[in-house]
Amino acid sequence: MFSFLGGPAYTPEQGLVLAAGGLYSFKTDRDQEDLQRSGLSMFLIGNYVDSETGYGLRANHNLFWNNNDIQFRGAWEAGSQGKHYWGVGYDDAQDFEFGETTQYKATVNNYDGALIFRMVDNWFVGPSIRVNYFKPTTDPDSAILDSNYNEFKDKPFTWGLGATLQYDSRDVVVNAWSGSLFRAEALAFSEALGSQAEYQKLNVDFRHYYSIEEGRVIAVLSQYQQAFGDVPYYDMPELGGANSMRGYYQGQYRDRTTAEVTAEYRHTFRRDNGALSAHGMTVWTGVGAVGESVEDLSGHAIISYGVGYRYELQPRMNIRLDLGMGKHGSAFYFNFTEAF
Q1: What is the pLDDT of residue 100?
Q2: CB 338 within 8 Å of CB 219
Q3: What is the domain-level CATH number for residue 235?
Q4: Residue 11 binned pLDDT confidence (cut-offs 50, 70, 90)
Q5: For 185-223, how does the pLDDT look when each residue is reduced to its tens digit (9 = 90+)?
Q6: How many angstroms separate the CA atoms of 289 and 304, rounded?
Q7: 5 close to 15: Cβ distance less than 8 angstroms
Q8: What is the distance between the alpha carbons of residues 337 and 340, in angstroms, rounded to a whole number?
Q9: Distance (Å, rounded) from C-alpha 182 to C-alpha 167?
């Protein structure tokens, strides 16, 4: 099943956007009744932000085989985009005002993915990969005295290998109404393998979905990220964007350690006959923190809250329109699938 979407949109990271693309969902084996639908989405983007034009490509995949025993998820981002850089740490995110001081442009080509295999019941394990290419073509004033930015602005390429351990009892991966997800991923980036920086990353993610009744769900996300070693600014753990602490610019809050807890209520409206319609709404609130270490998270908290509209484009696959709000203002997001 293929759905095409195109038209104007707006996000705080990309400004005014003209996008065209689509969502393709399918079963890799139609004879397997319990096999989840695989999904491929891709968008070509042209944007205008901060008096700069940009272009980009966004793609995501969630693929399932052999009665869901083999799963392959990943995300690809490429293009030349206007961006903003505040620095590293909670204080820098406060000190620099969004605008010409933080503005710069970069060429980006990133991919991260994991191929996991069922071990027993709902437990999976498998290899992970992350590839980063992030090259500034202009420098922001906020980075003039930033030691990390100046060290790595001419070292744009890193890549790492690792492993994912996952427990997943969700009924539908892309839009769960019940079940839980626990995922722990560890990655190592080594200069011996061609990476231009030597560091390690840990990401621990827990999600739970409680169904009040059909079409009414409470979803909770808890996530912890930490980086070790000589980690570049462009691959540090960060908060903000379409899937984390909505309402904050992605990367305004970045450091070696981040933590987030977000709770969201999802409501699907009913037709006159009582059946679920294609329309829904959400409300959420969340709290996050950044720091150089776990001990530094205390006192460095930020709050996110907002409201969203949902339209079911394909079975259990939604278009997402969110208005997020935070300490520094608000942000609007347009995306496929849920934030978590």
Answers
A1: 82
A2: yes
A3: 2.40.160.50
A4: low
A5: 999 999 999 999 999 999 999 999 999 999 999 999 999
A6: 11
A7: no
A8: 8
A9: 5
Task: Kindly report the backbone phi and psi dihedral angles of residue 81, in degrees, each rounded to the nearest multiple of 5, phi listed first.
Answer: -135, 150
Question: Each residue of 229-275: pLDDT tens digit?
Answer: 999 999 999 999 989 999 999 889 999 999 999 999 999 999 999 89
Number of domains in the chain: 1
Identify whether the C-beta of residue 138 lies closer than 8 Å to the C-beta of residue 105.
yes
Concatenate the DSSP letters of all residues of 73-90 into one string. Answer: EEEEEEEEEEEE---SSH
109: number of Cβ within 10 Å = 17
**What is the C-alpha to C-alpha distance for residues 47 and 40, in angstroms, rounded to an integer?**
23
The answer, as to whether pTM is greater than 0.85, is yes
Backbone angles phi, psi at 196, to 5 degrees: -90, 10
Reading the block at residue 123, the tokens are 């437990």
Beta bridge partners of residue 129, listed in sequence order: 113, 161
- Model confidence band, residue 13 (pLDDT cutoffs 50, 70, 90): low
User: What average pLDDT does the chain have?
Assistant: 93
Residue 97, exposed/middle/buried by CB under 10 A (0-12, 13-18, 19+)?
A: exposed
Which tokens belong to 229? 């070693």
Q: Which token pair is 208?
A: 């739970």
Counting every residue, how long is the chain? 340
Structure tokens at 337: 């699938």
Domain that holds residue 163: 2-336
